[in-house]
Amino acid sequence: MASDQKFVDFIIDQFNYSGQVTYKKMFGEYGLYFDDKLFALVCDNKLFVKPTSSGRAYIRDVVEAPPYPGAKNQFVIEEQLEDRDWLKKLVDITVAELPAAKPKKKK
User: Fold this and answer.
1) pTM
2) How does pLDDT run across 22-54, given as a tens digit for each residue?
3) Taking a C-beta distance cutoff of 8 angstroms, is the pair 80, 91 a contact?
4) What is d(CA 95, CA 89) in angstroms, rounded to the nearest whole number?
């Protein structure tokens, strides 16, 4: 089942970053980016955040699952979707720990 645009818009709004969080549609699902770093996916109207050790410590009771068949497990965020401050803090600590985006090769 593909994700709804309304759900993606809700998630982006919850992060409360003006213009820094963007998304790209991918095969009916969405990749979420913070300043060109892919940090999360929205698949089947669920939020999956890339796992980091800081994120694991922040979440504490981590639920992990693959966002799609064959993918590595990621943090599934469900109960905290309504908590803007909590989500923004999770994005901050996740993005800080992820490596910088690789520069795109020019064709």
Assistant:
1) 0.89
2) 899 988 799 999 988 999 999 999 999 999 999
3) no
4) 10
CA nearest to 90, candidates 45, 44, 40: 40
- Mean predicted lDDT score pLDDT of the chain: 90
Place of tokens 């996740």: 94
Contact 69, 75 (CB under 8 A): no
Q: What is the DSSP string of the chain?
A: -PPPHHHHHHHHHHHT-TTTEEEEEETTEEEEEETTEEEEEEETTEEEE---HHHHHHHSS--EE-SSTTPPPEEEE-TTTT-HHHHHHHHHHHHHHSPPPPPPPP-
